[in-house]
Every structure is written in structure tokens, then in C-alpha cells.
Amino acid sequence: MKKSLDEINQSVKVPSVYETSFLQKFLAYSGPGALVAVGYMDPGNWLTSLSSGSQFKYQLLSVLLISIIIAMFMQSLAIKLGVVARQDLAQAIAQKVPKPIRYCLWILNEIAMMATDLTGVIGTAIALKLLFGLPLIFGILLTILDVLIVLLFLRFGIRRIEFIVLVAILTVGIIFGIEVFRANPAFGKIFQGVVPTSDIIHNHEKLVLSLGIMGATIMPHNLYLHSSLAQSRRYDYKDPLQVKEALRFANWDSNVHLVAAFIINALLLILGGTLFFHTNNQLASLQDVFNGLKNAAIVGKLASPVMSWLFAFALLITGLISSITSTLSGQIVMEGFLNIRLPLWQRRLLTRFVTLIPILIIGFLVNFNEQDFENLIVYAQIALSIALPFTLFPMILLTSNSKLMKEHTNNKLTTIVGLLLAGIITILNLRLIFSIL
């Protein structure tokens, strides 16, 4: 069997189980979690977090926290599959299903990868418009050039890519930290918002937004990506102690970066709740936030063009770095389900061109109206929601297979919790789809 992402598979040497400190080992294994965390901070997350804050202040922070905890659980299963079975999720599924089902799953996941790419394209184009006044159509066409950025990064090797992405995440976090600090939120009410209440289920609008947060948080491409990136570390995978340690530190890496993703999304929600909750108009677009941050009539003395610019700059960063992860995820899906390898630049161009076709068609139909474009992000979540059950259930069953996972097979409790969570997420996503449609 071909290695998953052969060019980076086992490319990063890590310390032996018998040497160095916890911190040195953590740093050696740290990186894949940063690439995965990017998927939890795309424009879909931005819109749902900001909208949740503007409508219900801090009350939906609990939903965001629960979503991240569930994501930690699911990503841990993806890590386990990669480290123990030495297969990514696409490869493992492809080996267990008949060829017709394999092709159907490939098509479904390709659509999900394109939906993921779509959010990055739109986010980047909107950021370019906000920063430089570039018309959306030109910003969209310029995203073709980000293949050059991806290729440039990949020439540095996976370790340097991980560092670049980590710096980008820290930059975005600092930007929103500054903006929230200036907004002077009510910290007591923030802590209250972290505690779940039954009102979320009974209030229809809160429920719909909660479903949106859940749908924007847990996405299939992150599971495929993590199951492959977990194999990028080079160690003796025939040594049970080394495998156990690889699982331990890969999960540390994942959880730390998912906490960072939670903090950034929480900052967005708090920003929306602090600055825009008192206004009569709920946030309908990223443009609304950009304009609001420099409008004294809306945010009072906190209004500042610098804050608006930093917001747009953070959006541009997340749009660009998402290009890296969507490229890698797309390659994993194609290689795993079809056993076809393409050079990354070809894979990137193919994905981007296929993504741009519907964007440009819809753009000309709606005269490149920004609000309609941001609505595409919402509809992209539908595609991701449809693909998610076909990713979660196979992953849980595969990691519960004793022949494949040996002593690292899921115990009964893990399997039951996994299937229960996957079932709940599926029902919630169906509810979200019906709400949107």
C-alpha cells in the first residue's frame, strides 16, 4: 500500500521514548494539530460566532465549548487510526467497502473538499475587498495564485509549514485578543455563558444558531487530514512503547491547538456580543463587522479604522492558510479512495478551478453582491453536514476493529459514546439543513 502523503510521511524525526523531557517531545510532535485547527477557524466559523454574539451576547459560548470537546474526541480517533494502523481514513475506508460504494464516497467527499475550499476563496476575496477595495470578482480570480503560495510553503517541508501556520494562528489570536480587550466585555457574564442552559433547546433561534456552530465546527476534511498527518513523525512504529507515546503526544498536540481554535472562536463571539448586541441590526455579513468596528455610532469610543483593518487582515490570513490544509485534505481523499496521485500543484489547480466555476456563475447571476456570496458559505456548510456522517460512522467502526487496531481498539464505552455523538451530530445537521432550506 502507498504511504499517505508520501512526501511528508515519516519525515519528522522525534525523540525516542527513552530520552529527553516532556517539553522536548511535545515540541517534536507538535504541528499537525495546528494544521487541523485552521479548519476550525474558517469564515463559516467566523459568521456563526459573530452572529451568535450579536443576537444572544455570550449565551452560546457553552455550545462552542461542547462542539470543541466533541471535536477533540473525534480527532483523537483519527489520530489513533493513523498512528496504529498506519493508514489514513480514506485508505482504511476504501479497503473495507465495495468499489461502487468507494467511488460514491469519493464523490461525496470531493464535494465536501470543494465546499471547504469555497469558504477559503470567499473569505480571501472579501478580505481583499475590505483591505484594498478590490472588486470581489478580481479577488476571487486572484485566489488562483494561492497555488504558488502553497507550493512555496511545501518546498520548505512539513515542519516549516507547521511553524508558519502556528505563527498565523497566534497572529489571529493576538488580533482578536486586542480587539476584545479594547471592547472591555463583562467577564462575569462570559463565565455564565460557558454554562449550558435548557433555553438553548427551547428557543428556536438559539437552537438554529447552535446547530450552525456545531455544523461549522466539526468538519470531515479535518478527520482525513489528521489521520494522515499523524503519520508524519518518524519513530519505530513496531515498538509498542513508541506507538503509545506517539498517541499520547499527538493527542496533546491536537488538544492544545483545538483549545486555541476555541479561544479564537470564543473571542469572535465575545466581540460580536460586546460591540453589536446593543444594536438594532444583527450582523448579516463580515462587511457589517468591518464597518461597525470603525463606526462610532455603533461601537462608541472604541471605533477605530485600525481595528477594522486588523479584522480584515486576520480574515485574509485564515483564508490563505486554509489553502494549505484544503490542498492536503483533497490529496488524501483522492489518493485514498482512488489510489491516484497527482502533483500538489495539479491537485491545487484542479480543486480551485472546479470551486471557482460555481462561484463565478453565481457571482454573475447576483452581480457579485457580497451578502449573496457570504450566503454561499452557509450553503457550503450543508455539503459538509451531508458528508460528515459518512466520515464519522466509518471512523468509529474502523477504530473499533480489533484486527486493525489490536491492543488500541476502542473499548465498548468509547464505541458507544462515539456512535451516540455521531448520531446526535447527524440529527442536528439534518435539523440545520432543514432550517437553512
Structural features, described:
The chain is an all-alpha fold and 437 residues long. The protein has a single domain (12-436), classed as Amino acid/polyamine transporter I (Up-down Bundle). The protein has helices at residues 22-29, 32-37, 43-56, 61-85, 89-96, 99-132, 136-142, 146-155, 158-183, 187-193, 199-202, 204-217, 220-229, 240-276, 286-292, 296-299, 305-338, 344-365, 370-387, 389-398, 402-405, 412-436; strands spanning 12-13, 233-234. It has a two-stranded parallel sheet. It is globular. It starts with 11 loop residues before the first strand and ends with a helix.
Features:
Amino acid/polyamine transporter I; 2 strands; membrane
Give the topology.
Layout: E1 12-13, H1 22-29, H2 32-37, H3 43-56, H4 61-85, H5 89-96, H6 99-132, H7 136-142, H8 146-155, H9 158-183, H10 187-193, H11 199-202, H12 204-217, H13 220-229, E2 233-234, H14 240-276, H15 286-292, H16 296-299, H17 305-338, H18 344-365, H19 370-387, H20 389-398, H21 402-405, H22 412-436
Parallel strand pairs: 1-2
Helix pairs in contact: 3-12, 3-14, 4-12, 4-13, 4-14, 4-20, 5-17, 6-7, 6-17, 6-18, 6-19, 8-17, 8-18, 9-14, 9-17, 12-22, 13-17, 15-17, 17-18, 19-22, 20-22
Strand order of the largest sheet: 1-2
H and E order: EHHHHHHHHHHHHHEHHHHHHHHH
Helix/strand structural class: mainly alpha
Per CATH, the architecture is Up-down Bundle
Number of strand elements: 2
Principal-axis shape? globular
Pfam families: Nramp
Transmembrane segments: 21-40, 60-83, 103-126, 132-154, 161-181, 207-225, 256-277, 309-328, 349-366, 378-401, 413-434
Protein name: Divalent metal cation transporter
GO molecular function: cadmium ion transmembrane transporter activity; manganese ion transmembrane transporter activity
